[in-house]
Write a structure and sequence with these properties.
By secondary structure, this protein is α+β, with helices and mostly antiparallel strands. The longest helix has 23 residues, at about 460-480. Helix 2 (about 55-65) runs parallel beside helix 11. The chain contains 20 helices and 22 strands. The strands form five sheets. Strands 1, 2, 6, 7, 8, 9 and 20 form a seven-stranded mixed beta sheet that branches. A six-stranded antiparallel beta sheet has the order 14-15-16-17-13-18, with no helix packed on it. The radius of gyration is 26 Å and the shape is globular.
Amino acid sequence: MTFHFDVIVVGAGHAGCEAAHAAATLGSSTLLITMDLTKIAQMSCNPAVGGIAKGQIVRDIDALGGLMGEITDKTSIHFKMLNKSKGPAMWSPRSQCDKVSFSLNWIKSLENTTNLSIWQDSVTELIIEKGEIGGVKTKLGVSFFSKSVILTNGTFLNGLIHIGRIKYSGGRMGDEASFGLSNQMLSLGFNVGRMKTGTPVRIDGRTINFEVLEHQESDEDKHHKFSFYSESNHFLEQRHNYICYTSTEVHDILKSGFSDSPLYNGTIKSIGPRYCPSIETKLVNFPDKSQHQLFLEPESLSNNEYYLNGFSSSLPLDVQIKALNCIKGLENAQIIRPGYAIEYDFFDPTQLTLSLESSLVHGLFLAGQINGTTGYEEAAGQGLIAGINAHNYCNSKPYLILSRDQSYIGVLIDDLINKGVDEPYRMFTSRAEHRILLRQDNSDFRLTQLGIDIGLVSDKQKTLFAEKQLKLSKLLEHVYKFKVKPDNINNWLNSIKSSALTEPKSISDLLIRPEISIFSLIENNKDLIKLSCSSEQLKYEILEELEVLVKYAGYIKREKEHVDSSAKSDSIVLKDKIDYSIVSALSFESREKLTKHKPATIGQAKRIPGVSTADIDILITLLHS
């Protein structure tokens, strides 16, 4: 039996869901193949979306027309805007989600996406004809033919689970691993590596003594959220998170199991995440610390399961339980599932182009953890781009390539392609050199018009975005031109201990004062700014955006000038113009790296580790000779 599609997506994790939705919405007949229809968009580790820099990725996905932000808002049970004490470039939304509802919402969305079919099976082989993808073969013996294929296999390729000295194959606990693809990819010339990740115990909330624990409340503010088109992030009942701590006694118990830990007895040799370490790694790397902070986070409103954030472990079961019961508040805690580590195959992302298409097989795209990344958000961002570009491949359209100054997704993909990975890649604000321009508040202004042009943004999004653009533009003009007379505002300025005016000043001159916010200004001086919108949510977003643009105007202008300067490097084309291996003036490392990565422009060459400024000068000289 055979079937024909334009796009086939293998794997229904966060990358696969965004990829399938994007390709189908754009008009490609799309097939999503998953090993378990009940676990689509499963939150395998922490049921949270966002966080530092990751929140910006989700806002970017939403601005382009993806679904992760909207579904996160619908299923949020604890929301925080992180880094509010810092500048707006550092603000990052994070939401603890109801993992059951999150998956069900994705299932509902995909099942109602036009042009999208879903099939439960395991892909074992790619169909390749003359260097081009032709489809896939499955464990059930079915051949599906297509113009393009997107691999989003997550941790399932040759997955191996570890708990102490016990190990067995699996893509995650309770699910089979996937076999066959890695060997085929290796035979095709793909560089295959192994990575490791892990997860903590899950605890029955009925056995936790919450009364002795610190608690964290969800933000009361309902205006900050992920989707620009949601009215609120409080659709569901909000739950507390709780804080607890390890101790020297806990540490001693954990250390007693190190000889049986696959991380330290030589069983696991693959690369683990530096920025989400196991509790064992924390004890080894920080031996002077007498305690480590842990977070108890609810997994769903429909069950009693709690996630112990910060306690990821692959130690033997008895050691995990004994250590857990020595933590204050968890003395009688019963676990639902132990922590475990998992090893899995990934493919060297430097063998991809910036479209996420393989440079070895035309029409084959890769997205998510299969590219060496970690995190739902990084996976979803890649999946969205892969889905758009697979559709474009089928229709002979130009690929969507996001630049580093356009979005965090652009930074992520550029890093993967040009730098590769030597550990699971996680996004941070520090990776984005233009982060003052890539704020979570302006993702729609950076990307929504692009999403409209592509055809992924809904009519509702288009209407709200047009209203937001128009009203913000008029309001900006007003605050820079309208002059406030001293007699009309000095009483209020004196009451907040801000310098009185001696002559008329623009509203923007008042807003740059750190003690004045746009909201306090309007509340106490209602006639200065008048703004009517189709919703209170939209009004709030416009005013907040206005404040950022005014208060940080100097920084934003300077960063834009830097971007314009950097753009010149990215306009100088390198691809296939130089045989680096014969340029003796280049350092040996530079010749090796340039030959491997094949940068398309001087800008990409600059971002390859090991390529020096002197090497770049030589390349520019050769191009002009």
